[in-house]
Amino acid sequence: MLVVTTAALLVFGLFTAFTKVRESNRLKGMLPRQPSAALDQFYIENPDRIMIHYDDIVGPDRYVKAFPHVEGADIAFQFPIRRHWGSPLTVRLPDGTTVRRHEVLAVVDSGGLIVTEPRPQQETGGYDDARVYQLETGLRYRGRRVTTRPPDSAGREGRDQDGIHTYQLPEGRRFEIAFRGGVPDGLFKAYYENGSLWGEGTYRQGRIAEAWVVTRSGRRFDELRDSAAATRAMEADAKVEAEKFRQSGARKLVTRDYTGAAAEFGFAIDRFGSIAAYLGRAEARLALGDRDGAIQDCKAGQQSEGTDAERARAELMLADLLSR
Asked: Is residue 35 part of a domain?
C-alpha cells in the first residue's frame, strides 16, 4: 500500500510539474508584446485618431501579420480600444481625487488562461498576483486565470466611482468617460489641447458602441465604421497645421530666435513630420549648440515625406555634421 501511495504521489507530482511547464509555455506564446508595440507605432503615425480597431494593427499588411500564435487564444475581444491604452495616465475621479491608471492589453484562451501587457498597476509596483482585477469589458482575473470573484478594492483604481472620469493625456488633451458599475457606461468625450471637441461617443457596459472623431478643421467621421476616411482626413488636416508651424519656425530662424524656431518646428513634426520641418529644427538645434539633436533630425528627415531636393539637402547636411 505504501509503495502504491508513493508511486501515485510521484506521478501526481510529475503531472503537476508538466502542467505548469506547459501552461508557462502557452502563456509565453500569448504575451501581447508585438501588438502593444504596434499600438505605439500606430499612435505615432496617426496622432489624431482616438479609437483603434484590431484590424488597424493586425493583418497581412499591418504592423503585426498575425496574432496570437497560440490556438484558441483571443486578443480581439477588447477592441476597439482608445488612444493611450496601456500608458499610465492621471485620472480625476468624480469625488475630485486623482489616481494613476493604465489599461492593459489582454489575451485570453478558451481554458481561462489570461496574460496582459503590461501587468495592472505595474508602474506603481502595486501589482499583486493574489488580487482580483477587472478589465473595462468586465472580465475579471486573478494571477493568470479568469475568475468570477469580485474585483478587490485596491485593484479598482477608483473605477467603482460612478460619474465622469477625466483622463489627462500627455499632449494636453483629455478624455471624459462616464463610469457606472465599475466600467465605462455612458457618454465619452475627447478634447484637443485647445479645448475644442476632438471626439465623442457612447460606452455600453464597458464596450464602445459608437464613436465619432472630429478633425481640427471641424469635419466629423464615424470612427467605428469609416476609420479609413477619418485617417485620410486627419492626415490632410495635420499637414495643413504642420505647414503653418513650419512657416512660423522658418520666420523665427530668420530673426535668430532659435529657441522659438526649434519649438515651432517641433510642433510641426508632432502634427506631420516632413523633411522640411526636421531640417528646420536641425538648423535651430545646431545654432543652439545641440549637434547631436541636429544629427538625429537629419536622420529622421531622411525617412520622412518631402521632395528629392529636400532629401538631398538632408543627406548633405548630415554628412557635414558627421564630418565635424
From this structure: yes
